[in-house]
Every structure is written in C-alpha cells, then in structure tokens.
Amino acid sequence: MNKRIEQKENRQNQILETALDLFVKKGFAATKIMDIAEAAGMSKGLMFNYFSSKEKLYETLVRSGIQRSKALFDSIDDEPLAFFTRVAEMVITSAKQNSYIAKMFVLINDALRGNILIDELKHSQRENIRRSAALILKGQRCGTIREGDPEALASTFWGAVLGVCQLAVQDPYFTYPEPEWIVSIIKNPQQTNPV
Asked: Phi, psi at residue 178, to the nearest 5°?
C-alpha cells in the first residue's frame, strides 16, 4: 500500500513540475490542460484524477511557492548578510540548472500580474519584504549592510533576484551574474570581511 501512495505522490510531483515548466514558458492562458497531460506522458482523463482543473493545478503551484518562501524565512539562523548571500547563491545555482526555484519566482510574479490568488500572494509578498527589511535593519546595526531604507533595499534585492530568474527562464544563453553582485546591492561597501 505504501508503494501505491509513493507512486501517486511521484506522479503528482511529475505533473506539478511539468505544469510549472509550461506555465512559465507559455503563460497560464496559453497552456492547455492537454499540453500538460501530453508533456507528463498521460491522458487528459488520468490527469483529472490528480487535479480537477488547470486552475487547481496552478493554485497548487502558487501555494507551494508561498509555503516555500515562508519556510525560507522560518529557517533563518544566519547573520543577515550571510542569509542574503546564501539566497543569492541558491537562486543563481537553481537558475543555471533551469530548476524549480527560478521557475517558481517567475510563476509567482506572473500570478501577481494575472490576479491569481491575489490577496494571498500580496500578503505573502508584503510579509517577505517586511521580514527582509527586519533582517536588513539588523545587518545595518552590526555594520554588514549598507545604510538606507530597509524596505527599499529589500525590494531592490528581491527585484534583482526575480530579474535574474526571468532572464534565465526566457533565454537559455543568458550570462549569469555572480551571486555577490546581487548581494552587493545591500552589502555595506566599507565592510572588508567576507561573509
């Protein structure tokens, strides 16, 4: 019985990864449920055993992105600049591998523009900026993060991260920045110690 549950979970994850790839490349409106089924190697009818509609599949992905961003902030035990450095390195590595994290950044941004789960997404985005700003303020107090409005610095950092993800998803020949270039947006230029 456990084998059957594991197979179902694996198949569901395969559908989610396939759908994420198509939603990011083609957009929600242009992606048909049949496109997802074919790319996942199953019939449209079988796919409905996992997700009742394209909208439910999309919402599942968006909610997964929201949960993952919450988890990122729930596991902070780094010095603030070290946290942002770790995030930049993780995102650049993900983008280079054309993997889930980079695509999820793009999907969440597209969902915001497309008014999908808008209240939940806006709340999550505001919370992420608020928590990032609190970390930046902490880093400013210990001298590792540059002076300036913490929310503006947080927005600029995350905007740069999103920009890298969007370009990486759109262009397979994209030249990736070094993670420290993104971190330099918030790093105190007088700091000499590497994090």
From this structure: -75, 140
* CB contact at 8 A, 146 and 189: yes
List, for residues 28-56, the tens digit of each pLDDT value.
989 999 999 999 999 988 888 899 999 99
Contact 37, 57 (CB under 8 A): no
Q: Quote the CA–CA distance of 131 and 57 in Å, as a whole number.
A: 29
Q: What is the largest CA-CA distance in the chain?
A: 60
The CA-atom distances, in angstroms, between 145 and each of 68, 129, 195 are: 25, 16, 11
**Residue 89 has which token pair?**
């390195």
Q: For the whole model, what pTM was predicted?
A: 0.85
- Report the alpha-carbon distance of residue 96 to residue 102 in Å, rounded: 9
Which residue in this structure is represented by tokens 């035990």?
77
